Amino acid sequence: MNTFDVRKEIDAEGGEEVYSKAVRAGRRTYFFDVKATRNDDYYLTITESRKKQGKDGSFFFDKHKIYLYKEDFAKFADGLEEVVNFVKQSKPEFFENLAASGDDAEVEGSETTITSVDEEFEKL
Q1: CA 20 to CA 34: how far, in whole Å?
Q2: Whole-angstrom Cα distance, residue 60 to residue 43?
Q3: How many angstroms separate the Cα of 81 from the Cα of each of 64, 68, 106?
Q4: Do 16 and 9 form a contact (C-beta atoms < 8 A)?
Q5: What is the pLDDT of residues 35-65, one digit of tens each?
Q6: Per the confidence metrics, is the pTM higher than 0.85?
Q7: Residue 89, class by beta-carbon neighbours within 10 Å (0-12 exposed, 13-18 middle, 19+ buried)?
Q8: Complete DSSP assignment for 94-115
Q9: Kind of pairing, strands 59-69 and 28-36?
Q10: DSSP string over 31-65
């Protein structure tokens, strides 16, 4: 799924939203949000969201977020690529199963605009 927001908005964290990508992966959704500081430097927030049920039966979203700053982009990307390649070599069946199920296939023309991460959570 291609999901992005090219509009610039100031979000609750104070960053200006530049671009967003939501990735649904089973029971989890990952949000990759590019934001801009007042000096127009970019940083990335990565949010993992899982829908959970409370003891009273109500549902809520358990969210975990990390912030990645521009000076760390290359090292982070290198580290991620290294560990993914390790898994591909050690357990290639993990990736074969994904290809067979179509989970990693993108549907052409499936672009959607997100107005905010919280609104996307509510859709789940």
Answers
A1: 6
A2: 27
A3: 22, 16, 20
A4: yes
A5: 999 999 999 999 999 999 999 999 999 999 9
A6: no
A7: exposed
A8: HHHHHHHHTTTPPPTT--B--S
A9: unpaired
A10: EEEEEE-TT--EEEEEEEEEEEE-TTS-EEEEEEE
Scan for tokens 């801009």, then name that residue: 36
Domains of the chain: 9-123 (3.10.450.700)
| DSSP 8-class letter at 118 | H
Q: Which two tokens stand for residue 82?
A: 């290294």
| Both tokens assigned to 40 | 């127009």
CB of 112 closer than 8 Å to CB of 24 = no
Residue 23, beta-bridge partner list: 30
How far apart are alpha carbons 71 and 77 in whole angstroms? 11
Q: In the block, which residue shows the tokens 């029971």?
A: 27
Query: How crowded is residue 24: how many other Cβ atoms within 10 Å of its Cβ?
Result: 14
pLDDT at 86: 96
Instruction: Tell me how far apart the alpha carbons of residues 50 and 124 are, in angstroms, rounded to a whole number.
Output: 9
Q: Is 27 helix (H, G, I), strand (E, B) or coil?
A: coil
- 34 is written with which tokens? 């590019």
Q: Are 47 and 117 in contact (CB under 8 A)?
A: yes
